[in-house]
């Protein structure tokens, strides 16, 4: 029987395989959530560069949030990431939820990024 970490890695790899098939040259919006913070990056997989990044660890966000590990913080990170990505010229991305379920903080980040102008 596989443990939780192995199952997570399996879901992550399955998600990445589907994204690679459907990306068609679009950058990937990757999400990582920890127990205390949430991080997001827009990554160009063709060149292997990070185009934009945001997290709840940043000083300007951290001071305005109660905690970095709730849906409110995730929405703030999604909005900030979308603004930075649009500034760089990225409008369309492929959403990479990793091995996380599309629920709670991950969903809040995605919805905020969509409302701020990113399409995926």
Could you characterize what this model shows?
Strand 1 (28-33) and strand 2 form a beta hairpin. Helix 3 packs parallel to helix 4. The chain is 45% helix and 19% strand. With 120 residues, it is α+β, with helices and mostly antiparallel strands. It has a single domain (4-115), classed as Nucleotidyltransferase, domain 5 (2-Layer Sandwich), CATH 3.30.420. It has a four-stranded mixed sheet. The model has no long low-confidence stretch (mean pLDDT 95). The protein is globular, with a radius of gyration of 14 Å.
Strand order of the largest sheet: 3-2-1-4
What's the N-to-C terminus distance?
Answer: 35 Å
What overall form do the CA principal axes indicate? globular
Derived from helix and strand composition plus strand pairing, the structural class reads alpha+beta
* CATH class label: Alpha Beta
Can you write the helix and strand succession as a string? Answer: HEEEHHEH
CATH architect. name: 2-Layer Sandwich
Q: Helix share of residues?
A: 40-55%
Q: What's the SSE blueprint?
A:
Layout: H1 4-22, E1 28-33, E2 38-44, E3 49-55, H2 59-64, H3 71-88, E4 94-96, H4 105-115
Parallel strand pairs: 1-4
Antiparallel strand pairs: 1-2, 2-3
Helix pairs in contact: 3-4
């Amino acid at each position: 029987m596989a443990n939780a970490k192995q199952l997570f890695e399996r879901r992550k790899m399955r998600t990445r395989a589907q994204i690679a098939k459907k990306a068609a040259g679009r950058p990937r919006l990757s999400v990582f959530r920890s127990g205390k913070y949430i991080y997001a990056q827009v990554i160009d997989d063709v060149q292997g560069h990070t185009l934009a990044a945001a997290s709840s660890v940043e000083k300007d966000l951290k001071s305005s949030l109660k905690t970095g590990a709730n849906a409110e913080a995730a929405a703030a990170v999604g909005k900030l990431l979308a603004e930075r990505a649009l500034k760089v010229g990225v409008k369309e991305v492929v959403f990479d939820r990793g091995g996380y379920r599309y629920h709670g903080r991950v969903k809040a980040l995605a919805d905020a990024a969509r409302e701020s102008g990113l399409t995926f």
